[in-house]
Design a protein that fits this description.
single chain; 195 residues; alpha+beta; Immunoglobulin-like; 2 domains; 4-stranded mixed sheet; 2 helices; 10 strands; 32% helix; 25% strand
């Protein structure tokens, strides 16, 4: 009974320490700006947007007469083949600050060009100084604003394991003590019988 109480207390201390220290995660809920198509003038609307690292751009149009796409010049994002229906979101990760120009491939010569300015975000903490993710973007929203940082959690876990080992040792020594009492009583009984 005492062992389970001690383990429960150790676990509660571990969780409370992690929660109150704020070390489990640092969350940044970025905003999403939508870029549509102005079919009348063959332009992106708006033509220029400003974001922060961790924010998203959503390219969305539906029922267009002409097919369009949005392709970043260096290949960072690409909505795919030109289409009259597009719903594509790209989230700018830590380290992807800068100015990005993108085009509608079928209408680039007609001036259908857009610009995204991504500013550094001091609220977005990079996890363990990793390099920015260079994976191929998908058409689904990416979750770049949710980073896990485990500062000191290892020590808490080690403390909990140490407390558990200590309790197991106490239980075993208690069992050994009881066994010694039983053996000692058996010896006394034998001595009484022999007398």
């Amino acid at each position: 009974m005492k062992a389970s109480i001690t383990v429960s207390i150790a676990f509660a201390m571990m969780v409370a320490s992690a929660v109150f220290s704020g070390s489990i995660y640092n969350e940044y809920e970025g905003e999403t700006k939508v870029v549509t198509v102005d079919s009348t003038n063959l332009r992106f609307s708006p033509e220029t947007i400003t974001l922060k690292e961790g924010d998203s751009v959503r390219f969305f149009w539906s029922g267009e007469l002409l097919p369009h796409n949005a392709v970043e010049n260096s290949g960072l994002f690409d909505t795919g083949e030109p289409s009259t229906e597009v719903d594509y979101t790209y989230t700018f990760s830590f380290g992807e600050n800068g100015t990005y120009e993108y085009v509608c491939e079928p209408h680039e010569d007609l001036g259908m060009i857009g610009t995204i300015i991504v500013e550094p975000n001091p609220d977005l903490v990079q996890n363990n100084s990793e390099e920015p993710n260079e994976e191929e973007p998908t058409s689904e929203s990416q979750n770049a604003g949710f980073n896990f940082t485990f500062f000191g959690l290892e020590l808490i876990i080690l403390f909990a394991i140490g407390a558990l080992i200590y309790q197991v040792g106490k239980i075993r020594s208690f069992g050994d003590t009881e066994l010694d009492k039983i053996n000692h009583s058996d010896e006394e009984m034998e001595a009484e019988i022999l007398e």
